[in-house]
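anyone seen this seq b4? input:
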Amino acid sequence: ANGGSIAEQDATRTVNAGDGVGTLPEATYTYYELVGWFDAAEGGNEITAATVPNGAITYYAHWQRIVSTVTFDANGGVIAEQDATRSVNEGEAVGELPSVTREHYDFIGWFTAAGDGEQISAETIVTEQTVSYFAHWQQKQYTITFDANGGVIAEQDATRTVNGGETLM
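predicted toks r here
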């Protein structure tokens, strides 16, 4: 299986002289996809079920790493276009996380869902062929203080908390 796995009963077989090898065995290799079976561990010629062996021979699985598409959704914020999507080898860490901005909001982090979900880090391992991560935000709050500048103001009217981006009422 050349690094991968194959069922023990599929690892060897006997073929009558002049016959093809028959149905090729299934093989697996975590984070890789099977390209095909070949007559050399690297390079070589691809074989098919109709390939007729000339004596005892070993055939080798050839593998290709699965590349995942990772999308970062700013979830109401702004992300640089070149940072919104990247390719990562499946089974490897997502890597440095992109910066995002949103007026009147503080960035909390990247998560596995637009609402709730689990927070990720640069070390999060990508395990799906396509995956999206979402920015989470917390609206800023400002405390506004009114100074009567020598005049009189009711104590309850002296301060007010306002959400970022909202008008003072």
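The longest strand covers residues 130-139. The mean pLDDT is 93. kinda curious what u guys think
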